[in-house]
Amino acid sequence: MTTFRWGDPADAVTLPSAVRDLLTAALGVTGPRPAAEPTLAPPAPLPGFPGLDVSPEARLRHAGGMSTEDLLIGRSGAVPDAPDGVARPTTHDEVLEVLRIAGEHRIAVVPHGGRTSVVGGLRAAREGYAGVVALDLSGLDRLVRLDETSRTATFEAGVPAPRAEELLNAEGFTLGHFPQSFEFATIGGFAATRSSGQASAGFGRFDQMVVGLRAATGAGTLDLGRAPQSAAGPDLRQLLLGSEGAFGVVTEVTVRVRPLRELHYTGWSFPSFEAGMRAVRSLAQDGPLPAVLRLSDEAETMINAATGASDAGGGCLAIVGCFEGTDPSDRLAEYGGEPLGEAPGKAWEAGRFRAPYLRDALLDAGALAETLETATFWDRLPETYAAVRDALVGALGDGGTPPIVMCHISHVYETGASLYYTVVAAQSEDPVAQWRAAKTAAGDAISASGATITHHHGVGRDHRAWYATEIGPVGVSVLHAVKQATDPHHVLNPGILLP
Amino acid sequence: MTTFRWGDPADAVTLPSAVRDLLTAALGVTGPRPAAEPTLAPPAPLPGFPGLDVSPEARLRHAGGMSTEDLLIGRSGAVPDAPDGVARPTTHDEVLEVLRIAGEHRIAVVPHGGRTSVVGGLRAAREGYAGVVALDLSGLDRLVRLDETSRTATFEAGVPAPRAEELLNAEGFTLGHFPQSFEFATIGGFAATRSSGQASAGFGRFDQMVVGLRAATGAGTLDLGRAPQSAAGPDLRQLLLGSEGAFGVVTEVTVRVRPLRELHYTGWSFPSFEAGMRAVRSLAQDGPLPAVLRLSDEAETMINAATGASDAGGGCLAIVGCFEGTDPSDRLAEYGGEPLGEAPGKAWEAGRFRAPYLRDALLDAGALAETLETATFWDRLPETYAAVRDALVGALGDGGTPPIVMCHISHVYETGASLYYTVVAAQSEDPVAQWRAAKTAAGDAISASGATITHHHGVGRDHRAWYATEIGPVGVSVLHAVKQATDPHHVLNPGILLP
């Protein structure tokens, strides 16, 4: 990651002319908004953490994550979330050492994987602490063990996803986990945030792949997972998964792997989002279930066609990715689907990791662009879909040009599915406040409709309030109790996850 | 349940002559051990709990569970685990009221579902409490909602499994959850203990079916589950599942249901347990995966044939239950399997819930009979299998006739499987001490081999020590912290799950 921009500068996107036209004509975007040079506050002095780097470059590189709010703040020149230094341990014991030193000196510790958080997961609270240290896990970078009999692989937490795939592919295996953050995210980050990949229908969510976990906590080491499943009490793996560094630092993850197989993508068109929803629900409940199954609403289908990202005309585009031997064509046709051949699938596959680059270009051009997501049960899905869309349109269109709000179903289950929204609007004078208002409206709509505040982005700082509502006061007190037990000095990612 | 015997007296088993001969000839069983009349201690006085029954009949009916140790103690005439009375609330709010009153008067509360625990899960500690009340959940007996769109059903916790199936079957659905305790166990009990059914390969474990939970805790109500899956923090459903009443009383469970489909059973013979293990692993990892998949070792196959429970000859018998359209024959044959047709499958299906009745007859006859189970990853399975078998043979054969120790793989996963042992020996003078020694040897062997102390029976009182080793000191302190938050008066099932 470069500073306040996604990924590799060499892969930066230039806006297609169709997009530029759309920004001006439809959204009233007025002009470019170049990023200011960032200014770092002087660092607080830090004690001798393993692998400590207090250079301005290291501090900037670890300043905040990749939410639009993070980027807008960074682009304004302010760097409120820069750590005072970066510790880079290379072993589990050194991670324990970081926690020990931090507890002793009351330094807030912010674990960093690929730094792809889009929910403020790297923006820990500074108030009440003598300093903030970023705990960079890139030094824990080994494949510890590949067990071909059990089909499990044990990775250290800092292994980047592409490296993990490369190591597994060499032995004929795959993890099959391809979230949009794939090119930069790490195995430990996937675990800590309950990541979900684009092929989740075929491979499951990351939390469903994890059979073992090792974590460094403020109370010592936690080693979990003696069997695929167990009735030995609550599943404590599931308490660490999604804990976002608030209970401990995941240092090692054992995941189920599968033989490498090719996926074939095709596009399908449905007359309406409702019709498509019935079709994908049917596949999720009665099969045959593709490994990748996505359904765009009318707005997303139209915008993708207008901007050249797909050539699907009207209706709703579905992307269907199948292993050889799985053919859901009959079922899709039965529900009103029209086959569009391989082209839309190939186009989607080619662009599947490109959206965050496009966002940077949109922000440069003076547009506001962000995504958010939720999940709920099938019977509530249409209501939630409309409520969130209406909330976004209402909040962003208030007194200005209406925004573009697009949505797709990105992950399906037998009992429900996720909804993933993309929003583009003209930036106002204060785009941070503008997006916060829209995000609040959307979060309130999600919460009121009974859906979960996040299906795969995590809680971080941005979803805390709704998360507290979602699990209720008893749930919150349980989490506080767990934190007290695992982080007695309260130095682990303060302000993240828990209110 | 009748007192200290399994199930319905009308279904009691008379030992087949082949079994009687085997007991005498092979095990040296010397003669019948009739049960003594139980003697109840006078009850401690209880405050006015909802639906309170302090009759001796009610107290006896709620005295302990169905482990062989529980039964042996009860058959000796001692009833150390009888509650002082039985509260029978009929609503969630009444359960909260039971917990409030219990906290005020320091009464231990033991939640009761179908009372089928085989791990001492109903034998709460009495020391330090003014009394013990059984919390009978049979009054929470409604199907709250069937959502045919999302394919979920919400049951109150006390609904017995057969009633749940009946209600679902009437609408064309099934839960597909058929553990050996099926005829008596309840939905709430399945959740609290992470039950696993005989068709788990097809339908998943119970904990995998649960999408929503409501629990009454000492700190108030916990309502969990807004979506099939979520990235909103740790999955707190998975903290309640397996909590065995120590953190709260599950009062309502929302489960995924599926359309009712027929299963067809066949038998297969493998030349060795090792060959069969490779075959079932292949099906678990590469498919086609049957819904029911079990593999007996040589001893179990031989004993079942000798006692007329199956007519498979030598080798190892596998029972394979498939939905129409799934045919694993080619794969089974590829791994050395010989088809035995439908007869072994039909015999297994007919006897699938009968083993606990047979145990009562064996105990009457002077034999010791019990089961235990574990799970681990495939690469460790052969070593664990042998270590536990050897530990049982060593402990029970020490100074007497060698026991019969049989084993089968009962549940398979991509990354591992469970091992289920059945042990039959001649009762010594002190069969409780005799079994405790064998159980200790087996538990130590399981723990030392790195496997989990229980795949589906739960922790209860009997597995506490190994469980503590399994999750380590940090894990134990996490559980204590959760208990402090949810059970501040420490009245919920004291001595169960947690050391």
From TrEMBL, chains A, B:
<dbReference type="GO" id="GO:0008609">
    <property type="term" value="F:alkylglycerone-phosphate synthase activity"/>
</dbReference>
<feature type="binding site">
    <location>
        <begin position="244"/>
        <end position="250"/>
    </location>
    <ligand>
        <name>FAD</name>
    </ligand>
</feature>
<dbReference type="InterPro" id="IPR016164">
    <property type="entry name" value="FAD-linked_Oxase-like_C"/>
</dbReference>
<dbReference type="Pfam" id="PF01565">
    <property type="entry name" value="FAD_binding_4"/>
</dbReference>
<dbReference type="InterPro" id="IPR006094">
    <property type="entry name" value="Oxid_FAD_bind_N"/>
</dbReference>
<dbReference type="InterPro" id="IPR016169">
    <property type="entry name" value="FAD-bd_PCMH_sub2"/>
</dbReference>
<dbReference type="GO" id="GO:0008610">
    <property type="term" value="P:lipid biosynthetic process"/>
</dbReference>
<feature type="binding site">
    <location>
        <begin position="111"/>
        <end position="117"/>
    </location>
    <ligand>
        <name>FAD</name>
    </ligand>
</feature>
<keyword id="KW-0285">Flavoprotein</keyword>
<dbReference type="InterPro" id="IPR016166">
    <property type="entry name" value="FAD-bd_PCMH"/>
</dbReference>
<dbReference type="InterPro" id="IPR025650">
    <property type="entry name" value="Alkyl-DHAP_Synthase"/>
</dbReference>
<dbReference type="GO" id="GO:0071949">
    <property type="term" value="F:FAD binding"/>
</dbReference>
<protein>
    <submittedName>
        <fullName>Alkyldihydroxyacetonephosphate synthase</fullName>
    </submittedName>
</protein>
<feature type="site" description="Important for enzyme activity">
    <location>
        <position position="294"/>
    </location>
</feature>
<feature type="domain" description="FAD-binding PCMH-type">
    <location>
        <begin position="79"/>
        <end position="260"/>
    </location>
</feature>
<dbReference type="InterPro" id="IPR004113">
    <property type="entry name" value="FAD-bd_oxidored_4_C"/>
</dbReference>
<feature type="binding site">
    <location>
        <begin position="193"/>
        <end position="196"/>
    </location>
    <ligand>
        <name>FAD</name>
    </ligand>
</feature>
<feature type="binding site">
    <location>
        <position position="359"/>
    </location>
    <ligand>
        <name>substrate</name>
    </ligand>
</feature>
<feature type="active site" description="Proton donor/acceptor">
    <location>
        <position position="420"/>
    </location>
</feature>
<dbReference type="InterPro" id="IPR016171">
    <property type="entry name" value="Vanillyl_alc_oxidase_C-sub2"/>
</dbReference>
<comment type="similarity">
    <text>Belongs to the FAD-binding oxidoreductase/transferase type 4 family.</text>
</comment>
<dbReference type="InterPro" id="IPR036318">
    <property type="entry name" value="FAD-bd_PCMH-like_sf"/>
</dbReference>
<keyword id="KW-0274">FAD</keyword>
<dbReference type="Pfam" id="PF02913">
    <property type="entry name" value="FAD-oxidase_C"/>
</dbReference>
